[in-house]
Amino acid sequence: MARVPDVRGFNNVVFFTGAGMSAESGVPTYRGKGGIWKEYDYDNCACQEAFDRDPEYVWEFHNYRRELVSKCQPNDGHRWIARCERELAGPNKRVTVITQNIDGLHQAAGSETVIELHGSLWKLRCCVCDWRAEDLSAPLRELRCPQCEEAGRADVYKRPDIVWFGDSLANSNLVAVQEALTRCDLLISIGTSAVVYPAAQMPLIAKRGGALLVEVNPEETPLSDIYDVAIRGTATKALAAMCGGLDEAAS
Ligand code: OAD
Q1: Residue pair 27/65 in contact by the 8 Å Cβ criterion
Q2: Which terminus has fewer CB within 10 Å in the chain: N or C?
Q3: pLDDT tens digit string along 234-246?
């Protein structure tokens, strides 16, 4: 394995995660073997136009994902990251997770400072009124917006609060990401193919600020060249190597 940095030597650590982070929990990635976009066409199930055309089908896809993810548990990698935040964060030290994942597994493992760049499978909103909610049911059975129904609009569907293809990222998230990446001195990117923008290029903000950049991925990505250290292994193994020092500190 490559020279592995010890997270304890840094003050502001950002974990930048993608679908590979949850692969060892049993959540399928999007691309590659067994990838979601190999089986489903995102033009039909993950964009506003598809939702406007056929909300029932888009909900069928998202309910399939809710059911699948609800059976998955955080893996040791998620737990190492949460433990880093608990044990390292203090007045002058911060640990932030910036994730492209919508599965909620970082929070389920105990991480508190999590920026969900692409939204969440468990958050809902309405496209017509200001109704919003969090709902962990799987499948979600009540698909209509209750506030619209009360106002006499019975045909308005709840929408998953996910950044679909063609949607913009939330401004509040962009501000939080900029802030976290500008001050970070170690960025660890884990399990992302680095092909979806603008997320893919975010680690460059940390690089410009002088942070050490580590890429954890069994495979090379189009942005591998920007990283100082490449760990060609899985999320759980790499995180055990980088965070294992926390055990020594405790003993
Ligand atoms: P991808 O499915 O594109 O990439 C997953 C990456 O994880 C690949 O590079 C794999 O090599 C790597 N990988 C697989 N198993 C791993 C493991 N055990 N440990 C570490 N790495 C592993 O997923 P993302 O890059 O997250 O957007 O995809 C980005 C966005 O595209 C997603 O957020 C989603 C998707 O369309 C939306 O839904 C808006």
Answers
A1: no
A2: C
A3: 999 999 999 887 8
Cβ of 19 below 6 Å from ligand 1: yes
**Bridge partners, residue 187, by sequence:** 14, 213
Per-residue CA distances from 205 to 38, 94, 122, 172, 182 (Å): 31, 17, 29, 17, 6
CATH number for the domain formed by residue range(s) 28-71+120-162: 3.30.1600.10
> Is any ligand 1 atom within 6 A of the Cβ of residue 22?
no
Residue 251 has pLDDT above 60, yes or no: no
Q: Distance (Å, rounded) from C-alpha 113 to C-alpha 222?
A: 28
CA of residue 22 to ligand 1 center, whole Å: 9
List pLDDT tens digits, range 117-132. Answer: 999 999 999 999 999 9
Task: Name the residue of 30, 115, 223 to mutate for ligand 1: max ligand atoms within 8 A of Cβ.
Answer: 30
Catalytic residue (one of 62, 78, 106, 118): 118
Residue 247's pLDDT band (cuts 50, 70, 90): confident
Q: Is the CB of 163 under 6 A from ligand 1?
A: yes
